[in-house]
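Reply to dn_fold:

You asked what the input looked like. This is it:
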Amino acid sequence: LMLAAGVWGGLVQPGGSLRLSCAASGFRLDGYGMAWFRQAPGKEREGLSCIDGSDGIADYADSVKGRFTISRDKAKNTVYLQMNSLKPEDTAVYYCAIDLRGWCDYSGMDYWGKGTQVTVSS
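and this is what came back:
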């Protein structure tokens, strides 16, 4: 199983937007829980958002609620994280992860994509 996370333009000014993508190769993402995490230098990894594999319900950390949106494109076998109103404190390495049980258990992710750097700076 491979998850490839990427972002078009990883440097953005405060208030700007970016969209992260997480594409799967070798398997379908349908039915699995998909989550986004981030880790800033010197800080613990933080679970940001997850979309459930069965009913598609999404949840968000308070730090990103109202600014970030997770979505799933079944045709492209990709999960996205749309990030708006970015702040300098959003600077971190971002990771996608998959819960093969279909849940949104941030502590129970089975596979992780390679991280992608997001920098919010003026």
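Residues 34 and 98 are 5 Å apart (CA to CA).
Hope that clears it up.
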